[in-house]
Amino acid sequence: MRAALAKTLKATAQPALRANARAVSGLLEGYGDHVFKGATAEPYLAKQGLSAATLSNAEWTKDAAMADKVAAAVLEWATENDATTFTHAFQPQGASGVRHGLVGMVQNAFFKFDNDGVPVWDLKGKDLIQGETDGSSYPSGGLRGTHCAGGYVQVDSSSPIYLRGDTIFIPSCLVSFFGDALDEKTPLLRSVDALNREGVRLLKLLGYEATGLGSNIGLEQEIFLIPRDKYTERQDLMLAGRTIMGADAPRGQEMCDHYMAAPSHATAALACMQEIQAQCFRLGIPLRTRHREVAPNQYEFAPLFGTATTQIDQNLVVMQIIEETAAQYGLAALLQEKPFNNINGSGKHNNWSIGTHDGVNLLNIGQITKAAGDDAFPTIMAAIVSAIDKHGDLMRMAISSPGNDFRLGACEAPPAIVSTYLGDDMTEYLTAYAKGGGKYEPKTKDLSMGVEGMRHMEIPAQDRNRTSPFPYGGHRFEFRAVGSAQNVSLVNTVLNTITANAFKEVADRIEGGETAQAVAADLINTHVPKVVFNGDNYDEANQEMLTKRGVWRIDSGVDAICRYSDPKNTALFEAMGVLKPNECAARQEILLDHYVGTVDIEAKCMVDMINKHVLPSAKAAELPQVAALEAALDTLGKAIEEIHASSGKPQADLARTLRLETMIDIREVCDAAEGLCPADLWTLPTYTDLLFLDQTTNVDKNYFP
What's the longest Cα–Cα distance across the chain? Predict the structure, then answer.
């Protein structure tokens, strides 16, 4: 391993040094050059008699002449940057953890033949705006079939066109011949419309004439970076994204030594992360933060906030760049939620807020009070808390990715009990407001470092609660339970939809004659005592207490998925214009199939790895686990057959039992065999081989100048 890594590092040493140089001189030069918006788009659009402001709304897509002008500007920009191809990039369902880039596309060269048969560059407005494709070969939950296969893509003008390599990418939506959403983005955009519609309506009743509003998010992306040569020797990592067996290394995260430690210049990880940031900056992706995470070889990126639709598109690009760049640096990037046992898994914390088009954050008490008066903030907060209480099942459904089976409720992620944290000050303020008084004045405290030469710091008096699934962090809520491999379109579709519905209910009551204070007081008194919890969510006694309160608790991801088609929820989605009942049913089927397919891959990997590695090693070493391993193969074979013979939720329940009971028991046998087997007879890379770049990397003597 060391020889291979040394060879890899020698090959990548100079790119690493270039990345370092770029980080200190010129990383911002060319920022956004590969995204068609703002200053980059302005000179090209000006030649067509347009400005960059043309792209700020969808009107250009509705005017054929204007669309042709935009296309001409895009064509000039693209060819000047050596692009030859365009594609509509959409977001198929059932993609997390298996589909590279989590997007679908067909790439077409933009040219035609002139009258003399000479090829010339050509891109028209109609090419940008829409296209037709196969809608039947993606998971559709029965909405499409080979005999009814039409799928239609349309540009999403809320997310900018961008360029990678020789291709311009047009963020798009995918629907069926009948207009059913076949992708992740279409419901997201519908939920944005619903939030805008009901939010503007409520703000007007509160005295604030907003021109529009939408949700803003910031996504923290956690990953693992491991040696690629060892990754390719593990079938489970290559095909399933996680280790389905593997004994603990003598060292894990018990010393907390990896978290926010200094990046090492002696491994490829830092250079890889620098290159990822550089590529993202060219695409206008503000990937500002990078650091080591808790587990060995675990890292995190985080961007600045942006609109939900753009941030989600950008996050999918970031995930793809991470995987591709890691390979170029002799590494493999693991995006799955729980690649390794007994150390932290990875999340994608979804920091969510609501902002008006003129810059007012509805979750910032100072801004919204100035814009709409004293009743606005408590009314908005009361509505959101009521939405969490009523629709916590949908929030749980939105994070029911297969990888979260092993992550939720552990030391790195909140449990599957959907409460919210507001902090004692905010909770007391809302309670007092419901009684007719109270003013929220965020408290601060003076903090001394105990050093004479250092100034005192003023810090918030309210601590952070990292155990809450959905804590309020001052100006935003953080959905901490979201999985690292997920496309978070569904997560934000749910947050937008349940909030829009809550705003509608409040607005209906105000229009019916109640005061905003009376409506907010009713919601506060009804929902705050139940769903707000400011304590330790990891404590089992607290979990039991919250369960008895009636807070939504769905331990099984399969059961959570099936909340999609609950009548309460289909009625909600339909009323908000986000999803029809048939679309909900289709999406539930897709999520169940995705779960079953994930487990099927893992179980088959376990069979192969026992047959080809564990059992031969155990026999060669004459270990006592041989009989148990042979029996395990029979058990796995029968379980896989039983799953294949079933369908729907019963099939997913069988898969969950296989994964969380049977396979865990078999893993214990495999790991015990590994612990006893002499190293020269064990043929699989171990956790020690996979998890400690700092300790196992040999650097070529010529690496440093």
Answer: 83
